[in-house]
């Protein structure tokens, strides 16, 4: 035995809303396209990304703290309508049995 744990290491990221660390696949990647925050659930869009829990609470905290422009390193406010719509749709799917 080498003393290593048998589980694989999984990458972690920090949610820009609640500032808690979580496994990367539990968070939603956000990128900016033409002044708007766009969800990137597959993680394949180009550019700098920020991560947030796909929950309205974390999204509201990130918007209130102006975390998206800071994390994505863009000047000025960003439009979060598409992101908010995506999170609300994801929450609607999760709440159905």
TrEMBL record:
Residues 13-77 form the YlxR domain. Coiled coil: none annotated. It comes from the Bacteria. InterPro entries: YlxR, YlxR-like_sf, YlxR_dom. SUPFAM superfamilies: YlxR-like. This is YlxR family protein. It comes from Streptomyces prasinus.
């Amino acid at each position: 035995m080498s003393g290593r744990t048998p589980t694989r290491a999984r990458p972690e990221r920090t949610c820009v809303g609640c500032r808690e660390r979580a496994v990367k696949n539990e968070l939603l990647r956000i990128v900016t396209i033409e002044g708007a925050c766009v969800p990137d659930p597959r993680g394949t869009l180009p550019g700098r990304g920020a991560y947030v829990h796909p929950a309205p609470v974390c999204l509201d905290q990130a918007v209130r703290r102006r975390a998206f422009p800071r994390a994505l390193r863009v000047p000025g406010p960003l439009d979060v309508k598409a992101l908010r719509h995506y999170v609300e749709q994801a929450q609607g799917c999760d709440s159905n049995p």
